[in-house]
Amino acid sequence: MTVKLGVLISGSGTNLQAIIDAIAEGSLDAEIRVVISSRPDAYGLVRAKEAGIQTIALSKDVYADPDIANEVIATELVHAGCDYVV
User: Fold this and answer.
1) Which residues are paired to 82 by β-bridges?
2) Single pTM value for the model
3) Residue 56 in 3-state DSSP?
4) Sequence-distant (≥ 6) Cβ neighbours of residue 72 within 8 angstroms
5) 10-residue block means of pLDDT along the chain (86 residues)?
6) For residue 21, which phi and psi values (nearest 5 degrees)?
7) What is the dihedral sign for C-alpha 52, 13, 78, 83?
8) For residue 3, what are the contacts with CB-CB under 8 A and spacing of at least 6?
């Protein structure tokens, strides 16, 4: 059973890349459905785009209210059909 993942990042995306690589080599039965970043300039977004993964970058204004930020993130994860968030 392929697990559908949502990945939250804020920087270079080294953990994201490790997941992408594990999926590509067949050692992880998963699909990354969406990568959400708290920083529009995070290099992890480049890694995701190069792998053909949908990306969402949230502006810092969204994070001014943690409840709104959590709602936006949760809505996007549900919309993408994620089973788990990493």
Assistant:
1) none
2) 0.93
3) strand
4) 58, 62
5) 97 97 98 96 97 93 85 96 98
6) -65, -40
7) positive
8) 29, 30, 31, 83, 84
Starting at the earlier edge strand, list the strands of the sheet with 55-57: 55-57, 30-37, 3-9, 84-85
Please report how the helices 14-25 and 43-50 are oriented relative to each other, as an axis angle in degrees rounded to 10.
Answer: 20
DSSP letter (8 states) at residue 2: P
CA distance 17 to 68: 28
Question: Nearest CA to 60 among 46, 39, 74, 75?
Answer: 39
Alpha carbons 36 and 70: distance in angstroms, whole number: 12
